[in-house]
From TrEMBL:
GO molecular function term, any single one: catalytic activity
PPR repeats: 448-482, 483-517, 518-552, 553-587, 588-622, 623-657, 658-692, 693-727, 728-758
Site-annotated residues for Transition state stabilizer: H169
Keywords assigned by UniProt, alphabetized: Repeat, Transit peptide
InterPro entries, alphabetized: His_Pase_superF_clade-1 (IPR013078), His_PPase_superfam (IPR029033), PG/BPGM_mutase_AS (IPR001345), PPR_rpt (IPR002885), TPR-like_helical_dom_sf (IPR011990)
Positions of the catalytic residues: H16, E91
Family designation: Belongs to the PPR family. P subfamily.
Membrane spanning stretches: none
A Pfam family per the record: His_Phos_1
Taxonomic placement: Eukaryota, Viridiplantae, Streptophyta, Embryophyta, Tracheophyta
Positions with a binding annotation for substrate: R15, H16, G17, E18, T19, S20, W21, N22, R66
Protein name in the entry: Uncharacterized protein
The keyword Thylakoid is annotated on this UniProt entry: no
Amino acid sequence: MAKEVDRFVELVVVRHGETSWNASRIVQGQMDPELNEIGKQQAVVVARRLAREARPAAIYSSDLKRAAETAEIIAKACDVSNLMLTEALRERHMGYLQGLMWDDAVNKSPGVFKGFANFEVKNGLDFDDRNHELPGGGESLNQLSERCISYLNKVAQNHIGERVIVVGHGAAILELCRHTDPPNRSIRRKIPNTSLNIFRISGVTGRWILERLLPRITPLPRRRLRRSHSPNPLISPAVAASLAGVLATRSTNPTWARSLAALLPSPLSDAHLAAAVSSLPDPDLALALLSWSQSPDHHEALPGPATPLAHSALLRLLARSRRFDAVDDTLQSMSLAGAAPTRACLGALVAAYADAGMLGKATDMCERLREQYGSLPEVTHCNRLLKLLVEQRRWDDARKLYDEMLGEDSGADNYSTCVLVRGLCLEGRVEEGLKLIEARWGAGCIPHVVFYNVLIDGYCRRGDMGRGLLLLGEMEAKGFLPTLVTYGSLINCLGKKGDLEKIGSLFLEMRKRGLSPNVQIYNSVIDALCKCWSATQAMVILKQMFASGCDPDIITFNTLITGLCHEGHVRKAEHFLREAIRRELNPNQLSYTPLIHGFCMRGELMAASDLLMEMMGRGHTPDVVTFGALIHGLVVAGKVSEALIVREKMTERQVFPDVNIYNVLISGLCKKHMLPAAKNILEEMLEKNVQPDEFVYATLIDGFIRSENLGDARKIFEFMEHKGVRPDIVSCNAMIKGYCQFGMMSEAILCMSNMRKQLEVERAGTFIVPSNWRSGINVTKSPTEISTQRPEVLLTTQLQ
């Protein structure tokens, strides 16, 4: 039986590249301008992208020059000979509006534009509007739709189970998108030059599904494209290799300067020197080349001010190598010499500083570019700064930069908007992210499945599963198919809620759609099962993972190790550590820490010690979490002296205990009746400015009461209040027990009264019993056992 995907044809619809009429906002219709230079470059970019994907069975295109040229470039890149040109895919005939400027056409014949929607499909467009034929032989929208869709339906029948590329025009592509919209509702869209729209057409039902809408993620600049991958026209690869070789031997080769001069033209221009600098792999070699070019020994030496291009090339090389100290020195020397870095150079510096997290430097460089060139850096560089501002939660600055980018020609792309929206969603501010999308593309328009995924993930992160599912429904209604990212966000959220039943339903849905879970989705499911104390079931999922061909990562194994250790299956957990190592995954602290803790709790100290040594041998220094697990395991096993030795060792390594480790040590010492040592730990905490919490004080108070040392217990209780730590119910009950134990009933009643006021306990009672009360005191419960009971039970049990 054929798979479901075999019954569909994948239609990749591309809008043609830019023409001079596009740039001048002239109505083209079925007029036949050719691609301009930018349009040809756009076609090359989209062709390279398509060439990296599955090879198409055929390419169909409008026969108008702008589409045909784009199709020919794509066909060549994809190595497809089956290219067909047809009138059926032409642009809408615009009647006598063709050849007019858009603004002039609207002003000249406003009546003609009633219901007209060429670049934006509007809601509420009734049947009569869609049948409105444009004067001068123009087409109606229904005529355009019927022409294109009927032709492509025939194409689909000839290519079931295959991929086909179609090159067309803006209005025609909008009609294809509209064909996938819900009934009586049209979605507002924009179709930039060389944008991609991917449709799936059922060979059985003929249903169209808009799978993805991919506007150009990075719009091309209006200037000539920078082609870093192309050979340098001034410096050939052979010369570049020779230059690097000569410069590398300059310390040992006395004739290196003559060899260098023989490789470069004379006189040496700034552009040629810049090309030579750009060809070098190492900034130190570039610095040596520039130094040679300006030395008195070089008869054609170039003065510093005459080489802004070469120094800009050096700055870009330094930025890529993150040699920021040398960047500062070079900028200063250029400034003294009166040379200015190029716009591209300053943009590259903005991006490099942003990538390194140096926000101050990045913004300074951006401001310098503004002052020097009156504009922002190119969009790819701006996006790096925008991303850093969002990561550092500098929302006002990020929004200011984003708005400024929108105000410039090609100053913001889809990625710019996505960076800001994703940042807001990570903070749970999904509604603000949605408003940002609508501000750019209009109400009700989410232009790409990536934006849907970001918004759904935002709702899931804040636990609003209901809104996430509603957005999923809207996404599917508009013809966008959920991706692995979509399902990953939903399953991760359900996993945190422990809703295993719904996770199973989503798994079935994914399989029906032909999607195989990735490692992140499997990890979410395994984590959910382990948190539900179902590590055995998680191992079943791991087997399914192996069977599906999905390789687990170290997170998979760490999750299983932790889950099994929590359930007491330490030996099984160690087996998975060995399996991770066998698979050449690199275990980390999260792999070893649960095992060390588990073996300590079982009293298998040698096994725990061996794992600690193994972890350190792999280059992972134990941190406070690892030491804390080791100490807790030792204390639980009754090895308090050994736990104190570990505490000393961690301090020697400059890893200092936190409040949790101190709590565990004090609890262990109190259980062993080593109260002076427990007091010393408290003093050490205070000296190191680690503030004890109520649990530490409660443990000490209970320990002294159990040892019938009411005086020290009382001192600690009063000291606790002096330090501003409000006594909790456990501390108060321990003191009440102590007072009762020593017959100090008035103090016990006063403590009880204060506890009522401080803890607002409405129902709590202590019974004062006859003279034989002392024999009935229950002194067997620890603070942790007491704290799990209701206040009234805690207090009455003291005298039962």
